[in-house]
Amino acid sequence: MENPFQQTFEKKNYTLEGLPKGEYEACIFKYCELAKLDLSEYSFIDCQFQDCNLSLVKMGNTKWQNVSFFNCRLQGLHFEYANPFLFEVHFDHCFLNLSSFYQRQMKKATFKHCSLHEVDFSNANLSEALFDDCDLLNAQFDQTNLEKADFRTAYHFEISPQINRMKKAKFSKSNLAGLLTSFGITID
């Protein structure tokens, strides 16, 4: 088991050579291909992923502690299987379609300029989360804690105030229709 610290991994295709199992701390991954890898039992602490493809990665008990993703493809990831201890992830310009954050504790998580089509946020704690310029088409919010979450620049979402905790959540006047869909109201 390896324990890389403050290393940069650049332009590597790990789908061919595999990523050595270990605890990666304060490491940077740039332009790396990690799609469909089994990252179960790996640890990523204070790491950054830039321009990487992690689509369909398996993550049984994977530790994601203060990990940032910039311009990454993360399609079909099941973060509910990740290790919950100190789980913290942030996304900027990422493609997360068909992923799941079911029951994740994600207080103050940030999603900036992300595609979040059909992402499952059911039973998650997204209090104080930021959804800045995010496309939430068909994203699932069911029994989700959205208190103080910021959706002012988010779009294509449908969130039912009846089944989610939303006290002090922020919305713009232009995107309020996404809160009324569950009531069968037509807005022109």
From TrEMBL:
Which one Pfam family would you cite for this protein? Pentapeptide_4
- What InterPro entries does the entry give? 5peptide_repeat (IPR001646), PA_immunity-related (IPR052949)
- Domain of life from the UniProt record: Bacteria
Q: Where is the signal peptide?
A: none
- PANTHER family, sorted: ANTIBIOTIC RESISTANCE PROTEIN MCBG, PENTAPEPTIDE REPEAT-CONTAINING PROTEIN
Name of the molecule in the record: Pentapeptide repeat-containing protein
Q: Which organism is it from?
A: Aquirufa ecclesiirivi
